[in-house]
Amino acid sequence: MWLGQIISNLGDTINYIALVVEVYKISGSGIALSSLALFQIVPVILIGPVAGAIVDRFSRKRVLIAADLARAVLVLGLVAVAIWWEYSERLLNGAILVGRERCMLPPPSSIQVLTC
Q1: Quick check: 63 and 54 in contact, CB under 8 A?
Q2: ∠10-57-9 over CA atoms, to 5°?
Q3: What's the pTM value of the predicted model, to 2 decimals?
Q4: Cα 38 to Cα 30: distance, rounded to the nearest angstrom
Q5: Position 106 confidence tier, pLDDT thresholds 50, 70, 90
Q6: Cα separation of 24 and 27, whole Å?
Q7: Spatial separation of the C-alpha atoms in residues 73 and 87, rounded to whole Å
């Protein structure tokens, strides 16, 4: 259990560093980094007292395993959303390009215009 917690904390630290680097690369703003820190601290402040009461009532080991499994499911969900977003963005861009190209093509010469 101790080794698992160390690995989990290492993963959390690597994730936080990656988030900080990515937010700074995208925005270049200190305010965005402060917002990131705020959004990570507020849930701890709000959920901390409730989580303490839950851990006191139930087996600490089971709560730890359940929390780690829930975090794993959430991370896998984020990965799935990221993959879906990448492919849906490409699909949408492809559809826009095909529609734009159809509008720019000259009409085929085999079209007969009916006159009254």
Answers
A1: yes
A2: 0
A3: 0.48
A4: 12
A5: low
A6: 5
A7: 21
